Amino acid sequence: MPSEEGTAVADLTLRPAEPDDAEALSTLLLDAREAAYPSMPRLLHPPDDVRHWLRSRFDADGVEVWLAESDAVPVGVLLLENAWLHSLYVAPGLTGRGIGALLLDLAKSLRPDGLGLWVFESNVGAQRFYRRHGFRVMRRTDGSENEERQPDIEMAWNDDVEEER
Predict the structure, then answer these.
(1) Which 3 state secondary structure label does DSSP give 144?
(2) Cα angle 80, 127, 61; round to 5
(3) How do 84-90 and 136-141 pair as beta strands?
(4) Residues 12-17: what's their mean pLDDT?
(5) Mean pLDDT across the stretch 26-38?
(6) 152: burial class by Cβ within 10 Å (0-12, 13-18, 19+)?
């Protein structure tokens, strides 16, 4: 892993991920998700299931997996499913360095007609991040429809989005 001082946006490469990247990206996702606790609930699926799921995304219609890397080491992952930003994770210890913003800008350039996403209500930092980048709240739920059963917020980005009042 690159040193915290050594990773800057200028040092990053963004590229479409390949199936051979799945193991490293799964590890990044699992590590980032664990580091985000308690802002995000822990994953309900065991690591092997998460690895299998991520590998399966490479063959799915309408799905794109991108990675940010520094010195050939993945430091961020972006997973788009059609017009949904399914996952955006940055390696623990490297948040706040512009990696997530770079991946989000990429997502917006790939989906210029708009993007939707879900964020946990407890993940206030992610909500601030997405708001800074033009996403607006569309609706809030009690979490009864997500696996974790935790309250969440649907957010969207495009020119026509009106924020929930």
Answers:
(1) coil
(2) 10
(3) unpaired
(4) 97
(5) 97
(6) buried
Q: Strand pairing partners for 63?
A: 81
Phi, psi of 48 (to 5 degrees): -65, -35
Question: Which residues neighbour 122 within 8 Å (Cβ) at sequence distance 6 or greater?
Answer: 38, 39, 40, 41, 150, 151
Q: What domains, with CATH codes, occur in the chain?
A: 9-157 (3.40.630.30)
Q: pTM here?
A: 0.90
φ/ψ of 47, rounded to 5, equals -50, -40
Phi, psi of 55 (to 5 degrees): -60, -40
The CA-based dihedral angle spanning residues 69, 75, 79, 85, taken in that order and rounded to the nearest 10 degrees = -120
Nearest to 65 by CA among 97, 110, 34: 110
Phi (first) and psi of residue 106, to 5 degrees: -60, -45
Give the H or E element holding residue 103: helix 99-110
C-alpha angle 60-61-66 in degrees, rounded to nearest 5: 70
The rounded distance, in Å, linking the Cα atoms of 142 and 121 is 9
Kindly state the helix (H) or strand (E) to which residue 12 belongs, with its residue range.
none
User: For residue 41, what is the DSSP state?
Assistant: P
What average pLDDT score do residues 43-52 get? Answer: 96
Band the pLDDT of 7: cuts 50, 70, 90.
low
How many Å apart are CA 104 and CA 68, to the nearest integer? 11
